[in-house]
Each structure stands twice: as structure tokens, then as C-alpha cells.
Amino acid sequence: MSVPSIVVHRDADVLAKAVAARIITRLVDAQSAKGSASIVLTGGTVGIATLAAIAATPARDAVDWRRLDVWWGDERFVPTGDKERNETGARQALLDHVDVDPARVHVMRGPDSGMTAEESADAYAAELRKAARPEDHGPVPNFDVLLLGMGPDSHVASLFPGMPALYDTRPVVAVHGAPKPPPTRISLTLPAIQAAREVWVVAAGEEKSGAVRLALSDSGPVQVPAAGARGRGRTLFLLDRTAASKIPPGLGRMASP
Questions:
Q1: Which parts of the chain fold into alpha helices (H)?
Q2: How far is CA 73 from CA 10, 46, 57, 157, 194, in A?
Q3: Rounded alpha-carbon distances, angstroms, from residue 40 to 72, 115, 153, 241, 249
Q4: Using one digit for the tens of pLDDT, what is the confidence trace for 4-45?
Q5: pTM greater than the 0.90 cutoff
Q6: DSSP-assigned letters across all residues of 173-228
Q7: How far apart are the first and last CA of the chain?
Q8: Side-chain half-sphere of 136: how many Cα atoms within 13 Å?
Q9: Residue 32 contacts by C-beta under 8 Å, 6 or more apart in sequence?
Q10: Comparing C-alpha atoms, which of 28, 39, 32, 25 is closest to residue 69?
Q11: How far is the C-alpha of 175 from the C-alpha of 38, rounded, in Å?
């Protein structure tokens, strides 16, 4: 796994716009190299603000949206269209405004599908397995970029500290009893996250600063899930100044204006 690089921006608004620009560049580069690209989306305030920033910039037209596969790192197990769903926020912020191929938007199914949470997780794992190519050497694609938010408790996706999902080696699991509502979720596991070519952890706010410090230390991922958020080729921690305020000296922080 790659060693994290740290990029710090002035505030949450600048952070969202900067991450949006990075995403566009990353997707264009991937499509130029191999014809298509893949991205794993996250929810949360900054995650959705980043998608809105992509929609708002003319540079979005550099991406061939028809040649993009869209995945999610986790989803709240609530019905389609519910405002709590990460999918709902992503559609409103970006996907409804670009020419994506509906067949390449891979949603995690909710209870309105008739599935249980476990069945939804198994169905998503099967969809990932179908999309994986021989060169991916595993049951999930090597996503070009996988976005993650991070909670003040250091959770990423719906992997909360100390929960059984952190020990699970399957690509996708159902999470029950999440400490923040809704309690039932579907989530990629750490092995699936670590299959990505690039993992970007995006965090803003002073309340995240302790979790950021722990995630960049020698903490284990069972108690600090974000410490396991690493990509095969590259890991970025993209932060605002307040989220970065407790990073120890000497970790190679790059501060932008």
C-alpha cells in the first residue's frame, strides 16, 4: 500500500473546488490512457460539495461521462430516493447534470428492492466481481480513484471503529448497529478499498483533526479505520487547515494558499 501524501487547503469551500479539479484531471487522464475510467463516490458535506463543484465548472466537459463507471463506497440501507442515501445526494449534485450511462452507475440497492441488507451486499459484490478484469487480480476493479470522507471517530465508508466489518475479507458487507443513523448500511470493506489505484480521504473541520492525526500515525485500522484507507498506487489526504491542525510536524504536509 502507498504512503499517504497530504495536501492542505484554506477552507472547506476551497477544498471542495480543488478536489473537484483533481477528479476531472484524474478521470481525463485515465480515459486517455485506457479508454474508460472508474470512480467510487462518497457522501457527506464535503463529498457532495465536491460533486456540485464538478457540475458547476465548464471543465467537467473534458470528461467523457459515457465512458465512466460510477460506484459507491457505502450506502445507507434506506429506499431509493430517500434524502439519506448517498446516491440521492450524488444525483442531485452531479449525476443528473451530466450524460452518464445509466448502465454504468452502480447503485447499492435499498429495502425497496425486496432484498435484505445482506442480499444487497452480496449483489453489489457480484456486480463488482463481474466488472473486474483479469489484470485487476481480484474480486473488485482497480478503481481509478476512490473517494472517502472521514468521521470524527475516524470511520470511513460505513466502517466504524471496532465493528465486525473491519475484520471481514469479503468485498462488501452489511453493517448493522452503526453508531450514527441510519443504523443499517452497505459498505465496501478495507480489502476492496485497498484495491483502488488511488484512495483520496477528504476531510474538513476542526472536529476531524484528531481523527486525521490518528489516521496518519501508526494506529491500527480496527480502532482507526481511516488508517487502513490506502491505495495501491497513491493515497492522498485532502484537508482544510482546521482538519490538518493536529498533524505532527515532519509528515510532509503541503500547504496551499
A1: 12-34, 44-56, 86-93, 117-131, 190-193, 209-215
A2: 27, 15, 24, 6, 12
A3: 5, 23, 22, 25, 31
A4: 999 999 999 999 999 999 999 999 999 999 999 999 999 999
A5: yes
A6: EEE-S-SSSSS-EEEE-HHHHTTSSEEEEEE-SGGGHHHHHHHTTT--TTT-GGGG
A7: 29
A8: 19
A9: none
A10: 39
A11: 25
- Say which amino acid occupies 19: V
223 close to 254: Cβ distance less than 8 angstroms: no
How do residues 152-162 score in pLDDT, each as one tens digit? 999 999 999 99
Q: pLDDT, tens digit, for every residue of 93-116?
A: 999 999 999 999 999 999 999 999
Residue pointed to by grid coordinates 477528479: 23
Q: What is the pLDDT of residues 173-218, one digit of tens each?
A: 999 999 999 999 999 999 999 999 999 999 999 999 999 999 999 8
